[in-house]
Design goal:
single chain; alpha+beta; Coagulation Factor XIII, Chain A, domain 1; six-stranded mixed sheet; four-stranded antiparallel sheet; 4 helices; about 10% helix; globular; oxidoreductase; Lytic polysaccharide monooxygenase; AA9; monooxygenase; AA9_LPMO
């Protein structure tokens, strides 16, 4: 049963969400909806209740905030602030499309949407975020450049599609346990140093299928970005003709 204190906190969180950042509330795969982490998990624990069992990694993002570029060299860049591993898995097949549903998204928060995957080499549920090695599997940024305007971005499609955006699990990926890292990089303040806002979300996947391609390497979260990268330090309001999505090259070996 929820306490009055917990319900009060929940109401405050939803009020804050309407004005600031957001989080992935659930994912769908083959019409099956699976709940992801919710920032309210922390208040369950504070009220003597166990962490809700979800595949999503729980973070100290109760302010519905972001990871800033000055934290690119900390473990927080992996899956958000002070993250704890998800306690279960979303079952998917290699080649499936996962749809990530965000609780909301502000129109002013334009930027790219990027997906990564990391093998767990065992159970994901006992890992720390700093142990994960990432491979980029999808990305979308500036979709349409508009002279005299800020253009159409991947986040605009997110809003148009009821705060939902897809990521395809590589069809030849070897079966096993993985963490998918799904993030939005927000650029409305990125014209100044440390102005970009990064919203990473992580989720445990149990991948099945006959794929044979394993990922034996990857990039540590602390090496994904630099605060001076052209896709991190960029003026959104300069009527961009193009945009360089930050991070490593797409990993396509398991496509």
């Amino acid at each position: 049963m929820y306490t009055v204190a917990l319900l009060t906190v929940v109401a405050a969180l939803f009020e804050a969400a309407s004005a600031h950042g957001t989080f992935v509330t659930s994912v769908t795969n083959n019409d099956v909806v699976t709940k992801s982490s919710d920032p309210v998990w922390y208040y369950h624990v504070q009220n003597g209740q166990p962490r809700p069992v979800t595949a999503g990694w729980d973070s100290l993002n109760q302010d519905l905030g972001f990871v800033s570029p000055d934290a690119f060299t900390s473990a927080d860049i992996n899956c958000h602030k002070s993250t704890l591993a998800g306690q279960t898995y979303v079952n998917v097949k290699a080649g499936d499309t996962i749809n990530f549903f965000w609780n909301t998204w502000p129109d002013s928060h334009k930027g790219p949407i990027i997906s990564y995957i990391a093998p767990c080499n065992g159970e994901c549920t006992s890992l720390s975020p700093s142990s994960l090695k990432w491979s980029k599997i999808s990305q979308a940024g500036l979709l349409t450049a508009t002279p005299g305007n800020i253009g159409i971005w991947a986040t605009d499609n997110l809003m148009k599609n009821n705060f939902t955006a897809p990521s395809v699990i590589l069809k030849n990926l070897k079966a096993g346990n993985y963490v998918v890292r799904y993030e939005i990089i927000v650029l409305h303040a990125a014209g100044t140093d440390n102005g970009a806002q990064i919203y990473p979300q992580c989720l445990n996947l149990k991948v099945s299928g006959s794929g044979t391609v394993a990922r034996t390497s990857g990039v540590a979260g602390t090496s994904l970005y630099k605060r001076t990268d052209p896709g991190i330090r960029v003026n959104l309001f300069n009527s961009l003709a193009s945009y360089t999505i930050p991070g490593p090259e797409l990993w396509t070996a398991a496509n």
